[in-house]
Every structure is written in C-alpha cells, then in structure tokens.
Amino acid sequence: MANFNIDSKKARTYDAIVIGSGISGGWSAKELTEKGLKTLVLERGRDVQHIKDYPTTNMMPWEFAHRERLPKEITDANPIASRCYNFKESSAHFFAKDNEHPYVQEKPFDWIRGYQVGGKSLLWARQTQRWSKYDFEGPARDKFAVEWPIGYDDIAPWYSHVEKFAGITGNKDGIDTLPDGEFLAPHDLNCVEKYFKEQVGKQYKDRHIIIGRAAHITDPQQIHLDQGRAKCQHRVICERGCPFGGYFSSNSSTIPWAMKTGNLTMRPHSVVHSIIYDDKKQKATGVRVIDANTKQMMEFYADIIFVNAAALNSNLVLLNSTSSRFPNGLGNDSGVLGKYVAFHNYRASVSGEYEGFLDSTTDGKRPNSGYIPRFRNVYKQETDFLRGYAAGFGANRNTYSDRNGLGESLKSNLHETKYGNWSVGSHMMGETIPKESNYVALDKDLKDPFGIAQLKISVGYDDNDEKMIKDYVEQVSEMFTNAGFKNVKSHDGNRNPGNDIHEMGGVRMGKDPKTSMLNQWNQLHACKNVFVTDGACMTSTSTQNPSLTYMALSARAVDYAVKQMKAKNL
Amino acid sequence: MERRVALKSMAVAMGAMAGLPAWASGWSKGTLPKGRLLSADQSKNLAAIVEAIIPKTDTPGAGELGVGDFVQKMVKDCYDSKAQASLASGVSNVDEQSIQRFGKSFVDAGKDQKLQILQDIDKGSDASQKAFLGMVKNLTIQGYMTSEYVMTNITHYEMIPGRYHGCVPVKKG
Ligand SMILES: Cc1cc2nc3c(=O)[nH]c(=O)nc-3n(C[C@H](O)[C@H](O)[C@H](O)COP(=O)(O)OP(=O)(O)OC[C@H]3O[C@@H](n4cnc5c(N)ncnc54)[C@H](O)[C@@H]3O)c2cc1C
Ligand code: SF4
C-alpha cells in the first residue's frame, strides 16, 4: 500500500502546474512545455477542442430558433451574463452561468466569465493594443497606486514575441502613446473613418484615429500555418469559435501547440481549491483540486506554479490558500491581497450621422474597428481628473427599408432597401484608479457548489470616473461636431463595473514587498515558486485592452522561472 | 446554394450539430419543436395572419415560409406572459371579427377580406389589438427577412465574404 501511495504521488507530480487555460494560462502552458517542462494545466470547466466543440460555428442565421435572441428562461436565470453584449443564442454555451457560479456583490459588479478550456479567449473582441511607457510610468508620475517594477522596455521584446505567434493585424502608426508592434497587414479604415482621421489630424495636434490592432491573421505567416491556422475569412461571428483559426484563441493556438510538444497534460473539470504551502520547504509544493464531476478533493504536485485563473479567480485561489505561515492567503505578508482592484470604464458612448460620402458604402465585413488612443493627461496633467481614456470609433452605412403598410405594399417596401446617412459612433475606455477600498475577499458564510468560499466583490466607480465620463463626452462630441457630423448624441449606459470584462489587480506587482504581492518577474515576493501572470498582477490598468499584456507577461515570467529553476533557485 | 450545402455537411462531418445545447438547436421549417402556445386552430389563424401581412406574390409569402411558427415560438420562449396572452387573445379576436363581418373564419376569408381586417385594426382605436398587430408584424418582418428563402434568394446572405473594402461605390438600384 505504501508503495502504491508513493507511485500515485509520482503520477500526480509534474515540473509545472498552470491554473486556468484561458488567454494567460494558454501562454504559460505553451512557453513551459516548449522549454521542456512536463506541465499540467488544471481547468475548472469542460474541454473545448478547436473546431470539434464549436457547435454553432457554421450555422446560418435562419438556423437559430430565436434569431440570436435568448429564451426568457435563460436570460432570467442569468441576469449578469445577459448584460454582456456577446451573450446570445450562438455563443451562450461559452459563458459561465450565473446560478451555477454564485458570488457576492457587495456593490453591483458584473463578473463575466468563461469556464472551459480556452476561458474567455473564445469570446473576446480581440483588440490588442500595446501599453506605452506612459502607462507603466503612470503611478510613479501621478502618485496613485504603487510604482510599476517594470517599464515599457522590459516588456517590449515580449510583446514582439507573442504578437508574432498570435498574429496581430495593425498599422505602424508611429504614435508614442501606442507603440507599434509586429503587425500583419492592416484592415481598412472606411471612407468616413479616414475623413474623420484627417479632420482630427488638422484640428488637434495630439489626437489620432487609427485602425485597431486585433488578433486576426490577415496574411498568414509560416508560424501561423504551422499552428494549423488559416487566413481570417471576415465572417465576423468569431464568438462561436473560428474553424479557420482566423483569430487567436487558446483553443486554436497555444494549447494545441503545447500539446504537440508531448509535455502537456490538460485536465478539465478540475476546480483548483488552493495552493499547498510546505512550511518546512518554505515553498509551494502543489495544488488541491476538486474534481468537478466527482466532487472529490485531490492533490497535484510541481516545482513551479503559474496562477492564470483570470484576475478575480486568481485572487480567490490565493485568498483560499492558507497555511500557518500564510494565514491570510498565500504570499500575503503585506495584507494587500485582494485590494487595489481596478477595471475599465466603458460607460459612455457618443453617436452621430454624416451626410457626406453618400455615393459610397462598404463591402464585406471587418472584425475590427477604429481606435482613438488616449490623448488626455499624457504629457502633463491637463484636467481635474487623473489619467485618461481611449475610445473606439467606427462608421458604417446601413440600409433601411420602409416598414409601413400591410400586404403586398409592405412586401415590396421591405425589398426596396435604401441607403441612409453614414452613422458614426464611439465608446469610451477609461482607466480607473486602483484603490484600497476597491477589493475582493472571501465571504465568511457563503460557499459555492464545490464548498469553496464565495468571492465577495466590492468595487465601484468614484468621482474621478464621473469627471472622466464628462470629459470624454465633451471631447468626442466636440470632435464629431467639428468634423461636421450631425445629430450628435451622447449616452451613459450606466453599465456596472466589470461589464467591460477588463477587471485587474488584487495581486499587484511592485518594488516593495510591504505594498505589493509580486516582484518584477510576477513572482510572489514571499513564495518564490508561485507566479501570477493574469490580470490580477496589474499595478494599474492603463486604457488599452489588457490581454496582450497578460500574454507578454506570461511568456516573460516563464522564461525567468525556467532559468531560475535550472539554476536551482526555486 | 452549393457553398451552403458544403458548409452544412462540413458542420455535420465535424460532429458539430450533435453537441448543441437544446435551446441553441437549429431551426428550419421541418424541425420546429412542437411545444406551442396556441391551439392547432389558433396556429392556423396565426399562419394566415402572417401571410396576410406578407403575402405570396411571385415569391413565397410569410405563411408558406413557416413564419407563423417562428412568431409563435418567439413569443412563447422570449416574451413575458403578458405578451403571450396578447398573442392568444389577438388571434382569437381577429377570427371573431372575420366571422362577424364575413360569416367565415379568418383562415377561410378572402385575401382582400383578410387584409381589410388587419388594416382596420391598424387604423382603429383598440389599443390592445393594435399592440397585438404591431408585435406580430414586427416578428413577421423579422422571421420573413431572416428566413432561409429570403436570405439565400433575395438578400443573398454571405457567410464568408472573405473581404472588407472600406469605400466602394453605391450600386445603383
Ligand atoms: C465579450 C468579451 C470581449 C472582450 N474583448 C477583449 C478585447 O477586445 N481585448 C482584450 O484585451 N480583452 C478582451 N476581453 C477580455 C479577455 O477575454 C480577458 O482579458 C482574457 O481572457 C483574460 O485572460 P485570463 O487568462 O486571465 O482569463 P480567461 O481567459 O478567462 O481564462 C481563465 C481560465 O481559468 C479557469 N479557472 C478559473 N478559476 C479556476 C479554478 N479555480 N481552477 C481551475 N481553473 C479555473 C477558467 O475556467 C478559465 O478557463 C474580452 C472578454 C469578453 C468576454
Ligand atoms: S472574422 Fe475571421 S476569425 Fe472571426 S470567425 Fe471569421 S474567419 Fe474566423
């Protein structure tokens, strides 16, 4: 029997464990396995294999019983997920269901989750803008949060590394607030977007309109073909999973790549409960897992552990990892674990119409849109709020038909489509300030269906956010009006924090172990063989979409971890 | 058409359709689930109403394309109980009007008689009947415009355009 136990422990021992298989976990797994480490990826959800498990990917619009609307039974049971624009008939199976995965909202917070192999990488909108030096220098300059322990130059090579593999389309725009990357051929801006770009360029010296950088393969390179991925076909139904691998997801890219090395073991249905800390060895030795099917607790062991469960779940895992050395959560000597959570503010939008270019329209579909890099408070403090916002911008030409009448007259009206004016629109992407009072913690009483304490989320807007919303509306309305757009209207969607799905922080990086959890290598200051490289590690949020940065940080941290391991420092 | 068939068989080959959650299962005229809101007679009436809203000309009308079933399914699955009650009572009401005015059930009324009844509701002062007609008309337009027939033969839906051009001349009409 004793022998049996030893064997079984051996069978459950790996060189590395990665918790979570989404965007960051997929990258950790790819890099670890490529460097020869036997790696176990633990994923709480079911397996989703590229193409095979995309049930709606080839369905025609008329094949959806409710034409993409969801039955009331489902929206009623999932009020939080239902507030996500992408939760619809063709993609709802990739969202975690509210009632199955409860959490406590001390303040309203829409926690949007994808619990399956691939995580949210199947659902994301694929915008991939690099951060600039101004973003990493922000806290030190503006005196909020703590100083980042790294700068743009530390991460730039890793941006290049992940961009080349993932496949990022974009233009080299030469804007210092939004560094250029390794880009595939850019998507087109359409005539009204180009017109707006010119107008803005003439009227404001530091404001730019560009085509977004997005994780789509516009001209496949050998490295993409080697992954079995092909050119994006502009279907623009990416959230169903793409059979061409036209956009980057863990499922189409990093996970099969890691699998091919022969070093990856993927274990779906494995809900990580906590990380095991060994007091004598003074390091983490493995993780406790609840098998989602049997509800049995089991243990897996490894020399290094990467925590990639997505920002708030990574907080949850660490908070739940208590030991006599760490009674308040793994690595939490500073007491800051779970605190300084921040997010992006997508509340406001501005719309309008343009009466020009009436003899032109667009042809085909574009899985991308225009982008306005941050222009507020970049070089100096110009306003009464801290930091700034980026914005989406897009124009399109819709057709409409007269819906009046009944009978044959209605029928012929419907088939007589006419072009309207161009419509233009923008939405804000504001940086929120990490504050101690925006936190997550374990609920003292409530447990989830696996017997794990529920996460209590207490995150809200503040005065800075309200001022920023006001400024965004004023500035973009002015830019629209100056460009000759008509019928300019602004709208506050009053969405809850979290609905932007860019939640970050709680396990922040920093120079000082007294005020941060992770060092410059995403390594817990107080437990050197545990690395956190998803949104939990972010010291501040910038305005750019965050996932590209999680990819780059993951690859960078693995490189360091493996070197340290080989040097026997872990 | 060719491409569509190819795609469909690709989906089947990949075993894709099999894994569909029940509520996301595909719909076509033949495979509509049977769970209904209306009785068989009321359902026939509804089919006649949608056909009167978008009738057969040199192309099929909404009734023939099964849009009645679509309307019923939408209201049954996606709308609240108030809207469901409005659908049921609205359909009966239309039938009663037909019997009163023309001495026959709505399904059996002539094409012009049917249209007359709906137009009178549209111009009339009965708010609840107007709301009923508005809801059915909107769903009929949606179901018709997104039907396989219209999307393949008339509006030429492209699943895979493979391109985006930001500025092309508007085609003259
Ligand atoms: C509709 C939508 C649009 C978006 N658009 C963009 C965009 O344009 N640009 C951008 O940068 N970002 C975008 N995002 C956000 C992006 O998806 C996330 O930032 C990214 O997926 C985060 O990567 P991650 O690895 O941290 O988490 P995820 O990709 O969510 O993966 C985390 C994984 O961990 C698993 N997990 C969680 N807890 C446990 C546990 N206890 N044990 C085991 N496994 C666990 C989960 O099941 C999941 O598979 C969007 C997201 C959505 C949903
Ligand atoms: S737009 Fe590109 S990536 Fe998205 S589904 Fe289409 S082919 Fe795939």
From TrEMBL, chain A:
Domain called Glucose-methanol-choline oxidoreductase C-terminal: residue spans: 434-553
Classification via InterPro entries: FAD/NAD-bd_sf, GMC_OxRdtase_N, GMC_OxRtase_C, P2Ox-like
Keywords: FAD, Flavoprotein, Oxidoreductase
Presence of the UniProt keyword Oxidoreductase in the record: yes
Domain named Glucose-methanol-choline oxidoreductase N-terminal: residues: 151-323
Cofactor(s) it depends on: FAD
GO molecular function: flavin adenine dinucleotide binding; oxidoreductase activity, acting on CH-OH group of donors
Record keyword Mitochondrion present: no
Family listed: Belongs to the GMC oxidoreductase family.
UniProt-recorded name of the protein: GMC family oxidoreductase
UniProtKB/TrEMBL annotation, chain B:
Record keywords, A-Z: Signal
Signal sequence annotation: 1-24
Database matches in Pfam families: Gluconate_2-dh3
Protein name as it appears in the record: Gluconate 2-dehydrogenase subunit 3 family protein
Annotated source species: Dyadobacter pollutisoli
